[in-house]
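Rather than argue in generalities, we have chosen a single entry, letters for residues, whole numbers for local backbone shapes, without further comment.
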Amino acid sequence: METLFIGQEKLKFAVLESTNSYLKEILKTGNPQEGFIVVTDYQTSGRGQFGNSWEAEKGKNLLFSVLLKPRFLNPSRQFLLNMSVCLAVVDSMNEVCPGFLIKWPNDILYNQKKVAGILIEGSMSSDILDHTVVGIGINVNQTDFEQNRKSISIKNILGHSVETEYLMQKVLQKLEMRYLKLKAGNTSGLFRDYYSVMFGREKELPVKIGGTLTTIKPLAVEPGGELLALHQGKTVRFRFKELQFILD
């Protein structure tokens, strides 16, 4: 593994309920080093953001969780970590095939279809972001999605299989690079990079707000994670789950 610490120690399983859940169980009784990862070929109860399920066929996708300890990051700015992780994933995938975008807050799309998701679960201690478990799921070689017709895989896009281990190494390398920049306080290019691959930025998009179909124009994101968007002639801040994007 061509990294300094991320992925240098790992556990790999054929089947797990959830890599995030397993890593959080380890943290209850132990103190693994930062960068420790848990990988599985199949999850029986894979989870996405806000409790959504994650459909993944056995042995065909990339499913892993990474332990980070971003105690240097003020909790009010923890979305900067989310941005860094999303960029690491989308940058890695764009090297394989250009065209991947980040849909706020943490999905990766290709032609408005979901190809990857990120679930970051943090733990606070005395107002410090003690540790975070970063779960990453990427549809790599699965071609059929019975539960969600709005999903797609890299194989669907390219027409051929991709080695999951190869892709994971690329993601971990870019994650470490992004994370170390964040740790050094180098965030000057973070928002620029994020906006360059942000789905629908400064475009009129259909959404649901409180069950009502309407449109917004995404403008920016704030360090706390709020989405700034133009809605009915006003700039509005949206928090997670306050709106739902309507994808084609």
